[in-house]
Amino acid sequence: SAVISQKPSRDICQRGTSLTIQCQVDSQVTMMFWYRQQPGQSLTLIATANQGSEATYESGFVIDKFPISRPNLTFSTLTVSNMSPEDSSIYLCSVGGEAGVYGYTFGSGTRLTVV
Amino acid sequence: QKEVEQNSGPLSVPEGAIASLNCTYSDRGSQSFFWYRQYSGKSPELIMSIYSNGDKEDGRFTAQLNKASQYVSLLIRDSQPSDSATYLCAVTRYTTSGTYKYIFGTGTRLKVLA
């Protein structure tokens, strides 16, 4: 299965600032997924990032708040913009799940605290 | 009703016992089902997938699927303290646009007591 390098692993940020999270995959993948996991909660899909096209955002998530880049088949970034304490969460990228058949591989996650 | 429901636990079992984790889902069209293990502070790790009714065994893990009753379960035999983690159930949901999404439950926290 793919190996994903995600960074930073954690960060403490001031409200109103932005943080960009990077994910590098060791193989080419068509789709990359960005999830958020708030304390004590399950995984919530933020958006799906396809190379060469705009990301597809889930209900409740907008591009202005969570802009995503996908410049090639092995790399993606998620930016959390104009942060507030409510954005404190773990952010995870994942790949896999081809055709809804196979499971995901997750990156190691980014633990974000907004103060 | 949540799309994927799990008892949050904690489920406490003694070392060597069988741990039984359950998950129900609401979408009858779901075709693929997964169990992930998540240690505290770590990302989820896929441990089992199941697609057909019945049982699927892999080492100490057995996944069970009953589509008529819309539940999927995970049995862990000979539970070890190292199995202590949160177990997430995930199912696929196909969208009207022809794509699919993975819907995760909130997870069951398992504690194996030495």
Largest sheet of chain B: 6 strands, mixed
Elements of chain A, N to C (H/E): EEEEEEEEEEE
Indicate the overall shape of chain B. globular
- Give me the secondary-structure category of chain B: mainly beta
What's the order of the H and E elements of chain B? EEEEEEEEEEE
Radius of gyration of chain B: 14 Å
Uncertain ranges of chain A: none
The averaged pLDDT of chain B comes out at 93
* Biggest interface found: A-B, 21 and 25 residues
Helix percent of chain A reads under 10%
Task: Report the biggest beta sheet of chain A as strand number plus sense, adding barrel if it closes.
Answer: 7 strands, mixed
β-strand number of chain A? 11
State the end-to-end CA separation of chain B: 36 Å
Please give the alpha-carbon distance between the first and last residues of chain A: 36 Å
Quick summary:
Chain A is an all-beta fold and 115 residues long. Chain A is built from no helices and eleven strands.
What's the structural blueprint in terms of helices and strands?
The complex is a heterodimer of chains A (115) and B (114).
Chain A: E1 4-7, E2 10-13, E3 19-25, E4 31-37, E5 43-50, E6 56-57, E7 68-72, E8 75-80, E9 89-96, E10 104-106, E11 110-114
Parallel strand pairs in A: 2-11
Antiparallel strand pairs in A: 1-3, 3-8, 4-5, 4-9, 5-6, 7-8, 9-10, 9-11
Chain B: E1 4-5, E2 11-14, E3 19-25, E4 33-38, E5 45-50, E6 54-58, E7 61-66, E8 71-76, E9 85-94, E10 100-104, E11 108-113
Parallel strand pairs in B: 2-11
Antiparallel strand pairs in B: 1-3, 3-8, 4-5, 4-9, 6-7, 7-8, 9-10, 9-11
Please characterize this protein's 3D structure.
- The complex is a heterodimer of chains A (115) and B (114).
- By secondary structure, chain A is mostly beta strands.
- Chain A is 0% helix and 51% strand.
- Chain A is built from no helices and 11 strands.
- In chain A, the strands form 2 sheets. In chain A, strands 2, 4, 5, 6, 9, 10 and 11 form a 7-stranded mixed sheet that branches.
- Chain B has 114 residues and is mostly beta strands.
- At the A-B interface, β5 and β10 of A face β5, β9 and β10 of B.
